Amino acid sequence: MAVLEGEHGGKGSFGAAISRASKEYMILIALFILMAIFSVTSEYFLTADNMITILLQSSTIAVVAIGQAFVCLGGNLDLSLGQSVCLSSYIAAILMIKLEVNPWLALAVCVCTACIIGVINGILVAYLNISSFIATLGMMNVCTGCAKLLSNSATIANLPEQIAFLGRGYIAQIIPVSVAIMLALYIIASFVAKKTMLGRYIYAIGGSKEAAFYSGIKVKKYTLISFVLAGLTVGLGSIVLLSRLDAATISSGKSYEFDAVIGCVLGGISMAGGKGKVIQALFGVLFLTVFLNGMTQLNVNPFIQDVIKGGVLITAVAIDGVRNRVKN
After folding, report:
1. Pair 274, 208: CB distance under 8 Å
2. Could you say which of 1.10.3470, 3.30.70, 3.40.1620, 2.30.30 is the CATH number of the domain covering 30-322?
3. What pTM was estimated for this model as a whole?
4. Where are the domains of the chain?
5. Is the pLDDT of residue 2 over 50?
6. Do residues 38 and 156 touch, judged by C-beta distance below 8 A?
7. CA–CA separation, 121 vs 278, rounded Å?
């Protein structure tokens, strides 16, 4: 009898694990279905060149989405990410081209700039108790204005060849270096989120700030750190984007903050905080990139694509809200 009960329990736990995995990674199922549909409707979709293009297009957004994931897991939102990419890229490009600073030093300044923006956002949200939506929306406009002032909205191109491999290089002439960087960052970020005290504290804060506070967690400190992590990923994403485009433009990073949010929510990271996995942001970004790539292959009007993308964001957030209410 005990054996039978044990077997039944084992089957039950296995079934529960399968059910949980299917819910957590539903976006992967949707991604494969979407790819199958586009493969049938467009003969150019499922080709090696197009698959590489999709990976390259998603790599920088996916890196930025790592930071957005940590911020969302902590129960906040960062709307300044895209324009932070723009400003950081311009600063690096100006240092390299106009001031002839060593390219690697310029890239380090790029990362530091993005981290400083993250620190400011974190202080505004954690220590001054300003809503993350308002604080980062204001910072988004500050970054836009600073980028325009520094560059006069002009493109700065022809960056040093030393950094070209970061965005345009290949490993063994097969895997793009930018994609390898993206995957490496997701492995590190997933480890931090799952296995470190920092990750556990951010999850706890996103689940309940009050409970986290009374458990002895320094809520303000770790909320600040989540925004700094977002700044760090912005800096790294800016480096890859600079190298890939071989230029800094006023449109660099455009809509990245919203694409990162869409990727996180589609992947299953809750906007309410405390739920989801960092790797799910990657799957969400890939889904969005495949969707837009397929629409382009089918010659869908770009303006209609913007409408659809906005609808996808609204739908994803609505589903997240319903899911949270059902669980609660």
Report:
1. yes
2. 1.10.3470
3. 0.89
4. 30-322
5. no
6. no
7. 21
Amino acid residing at 245? L
Structure tokens at 284: 């969400």
Taking the CB of residue 273, how many other CB atoms lie within 10 A of it?
Answer: 23
Checking if the pLDDT of 180 tops 70, the result is yes
Burial category of 40 from C-beta neighbours within 10 Å (exposed 0-12, middle 13-18, buried 19 and up): exposed
Residue pLDDT, tens place only, 137-177? 999 999 999 999 999 989 999 999 999 999 999 998 889 99
Spatial separation of the C-alpha atoms in residues 246 and 264, rounded to whole Å: 28
C-alpha–C-alpha distance, residues 32 and 118, integer Å: 35
Q: Are 247 and 159 in contact (CB under 8 A)?
A: yes
Write down the residue that tokens 């003969």 correspond to.
43
Whether 240 contacts 160, CB under 8 Å: no
Q: Is the torsion defined by CA of 305, 307, 312, 317 positive or negative? A: positive
The label of the residue with tokens 């957590």 reads 24
Instruction: Give tens-digit pLDDT for 66-100.
Output: 999 999 999 999 999 999 999 999 999 999 999 99
Continuous segment of H or E residues that includes residue 31: helix 26-41
Residue 175 main-chain phi, psi, to 5 deg: -95, 125
Tokens found for residue 38: 């586009």
Q: Residue 248 is inside which H or E element, if any?
A: strand 247-248
pLDDT at position 14: 57
